[in-house]
Inverse folding.
């Protein structure tokens, strides 16, 4: 950027002052009909937007880079800058240049960032645009997710792992963090989120609390159930501070804070969400579970279904309620057709409503809002059997919005202009002056013809005519033949060869009216539009509540529609921790099979008594991973309220699903495939509950054979001995693990069947009891197109190795392993004295100990050990 000089122009001086307040944002500076960028901003903008970079004078012998675009193209260019990861400050003219002498007053009217965006070009209808704020603390962390484009606000608190899971689930567009915690955030949580650091003082409880109760206009946060959620309050306060900082004062549509309680939902860690490919697939054109079950019609429904998928329920009555409604819609084709018909006519009520207080809703969107509310009312009135209590309860919650629709239709025409400044938006009959001005502006010819006729009769001049020019406006023209008949009060303005031109007071008055009519009409329509938006603001909560209910109905009809389309069945939910799936299918794979090919279904049974753990062996490419994933997906779908791809399913209430499927490096973090595998497996092992479902694939393959088998064996043994008896499927190539079936109760061997013909392997993809002894890796290599010489050599080497190990030395050694040496806890089997040490340690709260108390506690432990040694 060019250095400032003593002769800097007034415009550039004003730009410099405003830019200094927003140093980390690109400043779009309104100059006349253009938004201009200067200096470094111009260099960046020209590259991203593909606009010309030029220079302009900035005082004597000084030039500065310049790049700009027309003001009406703001939406076109703004989203490109924000999508590129830049904060953009929009600086507008705050005065009418026509009424000001000298430099026009300017100021930033909005600061747009990735997480604070309301423009349709910046938003995806099917995805929320969340701003997240994270408060990091040793005791408890807090997090808030706020979408100002829909009005949704969620808060939660817990440990760092919970924060990590929530960030991955919500996928915020921007994350706020305090400057002092940036390093911890990057080390513990950063998954390449766009982050912005705020001053540490903003993350203070008293400041956040005051900010929130002021915004919601309440005395305390007890009504939201957040009074004691200190960490969550701090996070939410930081987000609201940021809105104020980014010039977003009109947030009346943020009407509540919703808690996310970890115990209300089925827990899936971030590895599981990734492994099951719920929302994203690592393959470029891969399919996800969301893609496969999303039959929603409205944008609100689509966004809600994504949350249902990430946060499945664990409350049995709530799950059954969803199943009841899905069944009602599933069985009543006429009802489903009626719902879908009305849903197709409903726009994005949430985002339309959010634009009202922001004053960014255009007239056509207001009409769309009215039509959407009308169809929401129609859904409420659809005939539903009285037996369908759950669905009727939702429908009863939809509040009538007839009065809102009437207000909108009273003010706005059915087919208004796209923007209020285009005019002709407001209805006739609501403002007398507006009607008169329209009469003048749109019926001027009739009025002029009437004047001409009146004056012609009055003066007796038959050839009298009215015309207009730019010099003196409207005039009466009289030929020389009749100029002696011209009244004395007419004022002569021009003499021609064969005629004279005159003006009259009446004509001049009309001229003034018609020339100012358009500007006056636009001003009046603007005022009326503001009045309408103020009236709509009074009903924000009603419209938002209806939008949420419509979204629920959309999700439920989506689940019913996909169930009908793909022949899903209603699962039977059980209080006991059992999983009994008959003829289960993978909901994603089966939808993308070649035409005419049927998915090979399988039965899976897991319970605490006879079949707690399945050791699953089988050839490569046989479908082991698909079976693991489909078991998890069927369980998850049942908990979110969906029917499932099976002929019958009994799904015991599950509180956690853990998966370790597939390998991935974290090379940038310095971790190998094996290290990532061990991290993920450790997370599972340390969080087992009695209702967990654990699905492990190829654990231990990232290290040597002996190490791998040892780790895999120990993991299975640990889960089997664990008091919580988690339901587990362990897929492996280590056939030696089949020996576990003979050593422990509740462990059963299964394999995926295959058929060998003429040195080829055909995978039958059917689950059968018993272990498999072959992996058929070389056959798979042949199928993949490996050179014949290479696979032939592999066959020779395999024959030598099998000859060496023909006595199955590893297998025999496995049989010799004792089962009574495994200890689950370092304190298990210790003496009474050491058990006393364990008791003292577990009862000690180290966070509250003073230094003196710590020394006394250490002395107490020392005395116990001394007694033990004596």
């Amino acid at each position: 950027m060019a250095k400032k000089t003593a002769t800097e122009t007034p415009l550039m001086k004003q730009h410099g002052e405003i830019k200094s307040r927003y140093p980390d944002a690109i400043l779009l500076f309104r100059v006349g009909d253009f938004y201009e960028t200067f200096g470094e901003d111009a260099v960046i903008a020209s590259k991203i937007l593909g606009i010309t970079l030029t220079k302009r004078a900035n005082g004597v012998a000084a030039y500065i880079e310049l790049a700009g675009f027309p003001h009406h193209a703001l939406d076109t260019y703004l989203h490109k800058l924000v999508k590129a990861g830049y904060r953009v400050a929009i600086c507008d003219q705050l005065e009418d240049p026509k009424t000001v002498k000298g430099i026009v007053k300017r100021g930033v009217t909005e600061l747009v960032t990735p997480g604070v965006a309301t423009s349709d070009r910046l938003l995806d209808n099917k995805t929320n645009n969340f701003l997240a704020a994270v408060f990091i603390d040793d005791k408890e962390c807090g997090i808030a997710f706020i979408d100002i484009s829909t009005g949704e606000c969620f808060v939660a608190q817990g440990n760092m792992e919970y924060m990590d899971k929530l960030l991955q689930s919500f996928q915020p567009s921007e994350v706020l963090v305090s400057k002092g915690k940036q390093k911890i955030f990057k080390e513990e949580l950063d998954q390449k989120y766009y982050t912005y650091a705020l001053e540490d003082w903003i993350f203070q409880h008293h400041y956040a609390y005051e900010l929130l109760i002021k915004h919601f206009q309440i005395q305390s946060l007890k009504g939201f159930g957040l009074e004691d959620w200190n960490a969550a309050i701090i996070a939410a306060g930081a987000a609201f501070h940021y809105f104020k900082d980014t010039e977003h004062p009109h947030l009346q549509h943020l009407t509540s804070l919703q808690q996310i309680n970890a115990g209300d939902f089925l827990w899936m860690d971030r590895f599981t969400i990734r492994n099951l490919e719920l929302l994203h697939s690592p393959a470029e054109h891969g399919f996800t579970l969301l893609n496969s079950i999303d039959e929603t019609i409205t944008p609100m429904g689509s966004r809600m279904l994504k949350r249902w998928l990430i946060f499945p329920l664990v409350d049995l009555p709530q799950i059954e309620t969803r199943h009841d409604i899905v069944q009602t819609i599933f069985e009543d084709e006429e009802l489903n057709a009626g719902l879908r018909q009305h849903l197709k006519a409903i726009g994005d009520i949430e985002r339309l409503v959010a634009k009202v207080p922001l004053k960014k809703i255009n007239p056509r969107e207001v009409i769309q809002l009215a039509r959407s509310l009308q169809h929401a009312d129609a859904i409420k009135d659809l005939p539903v059997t009285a037996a369908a209590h759950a669905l009727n309860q939702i429908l009863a919650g939809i509040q009538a919005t007839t009065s809102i629709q009437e207000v909108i239709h009273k003010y706005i025409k059915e087919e208004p202009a796209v923007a209020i400044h285009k005019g002709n938006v407001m209805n006739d009959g609501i403002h007398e002056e507006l009607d008169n001005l329209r009469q003048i502006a749109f019926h001027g010819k009739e009025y002029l013809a009437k004047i001409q006729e009146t004056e012609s009769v009055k003066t007796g001049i038959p050839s009298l005519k009215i015309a207009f020019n730019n010099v003196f406006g409207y005039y009466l023209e009289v030929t020389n033949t009749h100029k002696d008949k011209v009244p004395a009060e007419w004022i002569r303005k021009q003499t021609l060869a064969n005629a004279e031109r005159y003006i009259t007071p009446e004509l001049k008055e009309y001229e003034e009216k018609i020339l100012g009519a358009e500007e006056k009409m636009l001003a009046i329509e603007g005022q009326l539009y503001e009045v309408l938006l103020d009236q709509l603001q009074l009903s924000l909560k009603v419209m938002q509540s209806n939008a949420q209910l419509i979204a629920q109905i959309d999700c439920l009809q989506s689940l019913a529609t996909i169930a009908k389309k793909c022949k899903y069945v209603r699962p039977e939910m059980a209080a006991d921790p059992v999983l009994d799936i008959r003829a289960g299918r993978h909901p994603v794979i089966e939808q993308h099979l070649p035409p005419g090919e049927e998915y090979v279904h399988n039965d899976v049974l897991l319970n605490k008594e006879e079949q707690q753990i399945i050791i699953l062996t089988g050839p490569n490419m046989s479908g082991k991973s698909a079976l693991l994933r489909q078991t998890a997906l069927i369980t998850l779908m049942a908990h979110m309220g969906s029917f499932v791809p099976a002929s019958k399913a009994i799904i015991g209430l599950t509180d956690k699903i853990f998966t370790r499927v597939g390998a991935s490096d974290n090379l940038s973090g310095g971790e190998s495939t094996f290290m990532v595998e061990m991290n993920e497996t450790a997370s599972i092992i340390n969080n087992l509950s009695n209702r967990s479902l654990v699905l492990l694939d190829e654990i231990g393959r990232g290290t040597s054979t002996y190490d791998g088998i040892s780790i895999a064996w120990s993991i299975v043994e640990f889960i089997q001995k664990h008091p919580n008896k988690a339901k587990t499927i362990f897929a492996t190539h280590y056939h030696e693990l089949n020996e576990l079936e003979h050593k422990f109760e509740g462990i059963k061997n299964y394999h995926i069947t295959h058929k060998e013909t003429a040195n080829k392997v055909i995978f039958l993809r059917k689950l059968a009891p018993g272990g498999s002894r072959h992996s058929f890796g070389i056959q798979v290599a042949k199928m993949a197109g490996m050179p014949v010489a290479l696979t032939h050599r592999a066959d020779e080497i395999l024959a030598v190795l099998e000859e060496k190990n023909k006595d199955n030395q590893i297998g025999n050694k496995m049989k010799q392993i004792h089962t009574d040496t495994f200890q689950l806890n370092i304190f298990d089997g210790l003496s009474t004295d050491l058990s006393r040490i364990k008791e003292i340690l577990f009862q000690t709260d180290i966070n509250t100990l003073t230094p003196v108390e710590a020394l006394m506690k250490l002395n107490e432990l020392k005395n116990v050990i001394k007694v033990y040694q004596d």
